[in-house]
Amino acid sequence: MASEGGRRSVCIVGGSGQIGERLIRAFAARGWSVVATHCRTPRPGTLPLDACDANQVRALISRLRPGLLVNSLNAPGGTDACEDDPALAQRLHLDTARHLIDAAAEVGSRFVQISTDYVFDGRGGPYREDAVPAPLSQLGRAKLEAERYALARAPGSLVLRTSFVFSWAPQTGTKNFVMQRFDQDRRGEAIRVPNDQVGNVTYAPNFAEALVELVEAGASGIYHVAGTTRCSKYEWALRVAEFFGMDRRLIHGVSTAELNQRGPRPRESGFRLEKAQAALKRTRLMSLDEGLADLEEEMALVQGARQTR
Fold first, then answer.
1. Other CB atoms within 10 Å distance of the CB of residue 42
2. Does residue 155 have a cis bond before it (omega within 30 degrees)?
3. 307: number of Cβ within 10 Å
4. Are 71 and 29 within 8 A, CB to CB?
5. 30, 96, 177, 261: which is deepest, by most CB within 10 A?
6. What secondary structure letter does DSSP report for 172?
7. Strand partners, 196
8. What ranges in 156-273 are assigned the alpha helix state H?
9. Rounded to whole angstroms, how far apart are CA atoms 40 and 14?
């Protein structure tokens, strides 16, 4: 692996997002030299990068020459937006990945692509890594093509699929599922949550630690890395409410069909985790309750620090 100043070096693209921000911490805790980028939301120490611009990507990566390049972009084009505009899925989720993969290959950087359970149709979950992908949505198709491009263009690449990611992340500007629950409960706002979309609930700091360990172990190919609790989004919302004393009466479980979402979602999805669990010696994949307990502790530490200022 190439190095910067004699140390292990990593460039995290999308470092201001939920997963990227946790990757910065996880790599730094292991002694890596870390450089991270942002596109729309600057964070202290991050470099600006529009990954849609191939020339901009090539220039930055050729200058940094990191030993490892991680694509943790949190692109704004979600499932519904990509279904409305397939070109958006191509530009934000596939072209950006291709630009990063090409740049990594040109300088000999190892590459990590973070992917999703949306590469599956949700008719036969939980899925193993060797299950045949069958994406339902434009977003899922773009993510699958990005996986395939990484594995073909940059041998030794690592592809990590995950799902239902959450954390305490007020500083990122993004609103993950749990952060939304806090806001909606505070406003007394009733919500409708799908009771037929099932996946593995994943705590972002735990995912980041697992990714770092797999990288350090020299893992390559596809791994499913997620939390051990597999449930519906409705069950997830109820558990968050129970854990933090929120009003359960505000949470209404409905079918996906009732939500009339424009982009199709996998229903019976989620992962088999045995491959990752066998490879991970230092990191234990967490359950939902373990992730919520860790999040609660982090919230208390942050609030305590504010009160002492």
1. 14
2. no
3. 7
4. no
5. 96
6. G
7. none
8. 177-187, 204-216, 233-244, 256-259
9. 10
Exposed/middle/buried for 241, CB within 10 Å: 0-12, 13-18, 19+? middle
Q: Which CATH architecture has domain 3-307?
A: 3-Layer(aba) Sandwich (3.40)
Residue with the two structure tokens 């390049």: 69
User: 133 or 303: which carries more pLDDT confidence?
Assistant: 133
Task: Tell me how far apart the alpha carbons of residues 110 and 133 are, in angstroms, rounded to a whole number.
Answer: 24
Output the six-digit token pair for 275: 């491959």
3-state secondary structure of 103: helix
Is residue 302 very low, low, confident or very high in pLDDT (cuts 50, 70, 90)? low
Task: Give which of 68, 62, 63 is closest to 34, Cα–Cα.
Answer: 68
Whether 231 shows a pLDDT value over 90: the answer reads: yes
Give the C-alpha separation, 99 to 148, whole Å. 14
Residue type present at position 274: E
Q: Dig out the tokens for 204 from the structure.
A: 């972002």
Q: What number of other Cβ atoms are within 10 A of residue 85's Cβ?
A: 14
Closest CA to 265 of 163, 197, 180, 199: 197
Closest CA to 14 of 95, 64, 71, 62: 71
Strand residue runs (E) in the chain: 3-4, 7-13, 33-38, 47-48, 68-71, 110-116, 158-162, 165-166, 191-194, 198-200, 202-203, 221-224, 230-232, 251-254
- What is the mean predicted confidence (pLDDT) over 57-83? 93
